[in-house]
Amino acid sequence: MTALTKDEKWNAVVHCDHSYDGIFFYGVKTTGIFCRPSCKSKEPIRNNVEFFDEIKEAYAYGLRPCKRCRPDLTAFRPMLDVIEKAKHIFDTHFADGGRLTAQIKELGISQNHFIHLFRQQFQMTPVEYINRLRVENAKQMLVNTELTIVNIALLCGFGSLSTFYEFFKKQVGLPPKKYRKQCSTDKG
């Protein structure tokens, strides 16, 4: 590959072109930060920019890595990290709607963007995922405890008995009472 000109590099920076990531880095003298060409930070003034073919050159120049595009990491996928954190929150707090909502808000991502990313990663919406967790937990409780169906529905995070029945039957194919009865006959 022929060496890129400064104009070609500048053009890649201006257009946040990720196809140049790893080929070169750019540093901004006034901020003391270096970035990937695809960084979405504010466009710098061209006279304040230096280009580097390797990260070590940027460090030697006295620059530090950008916290937004993380040029110091080989793979940087911040949205995947956010989705993994959300999944962990769901797995841990699926039965506590208030806590779940509060912790998801702390991730700092818009609801629509979050739903889109979650669906892209897990092929279902966050609500569908949470309801699956709740139903799976309810199945375990129906088989392993003597709790009433109402108590199980509430302990699993369903706001009402009718909602619980609706989701349970849709996912399992049986109402909770029949499921419990069938599982106890299968054990016996």
Automatic annotation (TrEMBL):
PROSITE patterns attached to this UniProt entry: HTH_ARAC_FAMILY_1, HTH_ARAC_FAMILY_2
Transmembrane segments annotated in the record for this chain: 147-168
HTH araC/xylS-type domain sequence ranges: 84-182
A GO molecular-function annotation: methyltransferase activity
Pfam families in UniProt: Ada_Zn_binding, HTH_18
SMART domains: HTH_ARAC
Domain of life: Bacteria
Keywords: Activator, DNA damage, DNA repair, DNA-binding, Membrane, Metal-binding, Methyltransferase, Transcription, Transcription regulation, Transferase, Transmembrane, Transmembrane helix, Zinc
Cofactors, names only: Zn(2+)
Signal peptide feature range: none
Nucleotide-binding in keyword set: no
One BP annotation, GO: methylation
Presence of keyword Hydrolase: no
Name of the protein: Ada metal-binding domain-containing protein
Source organism of this protein record: Pelosinus fermentans B4
Lineage: Bacteria, Bacillati, Bacillota, Negativicutes, Selenomonadales
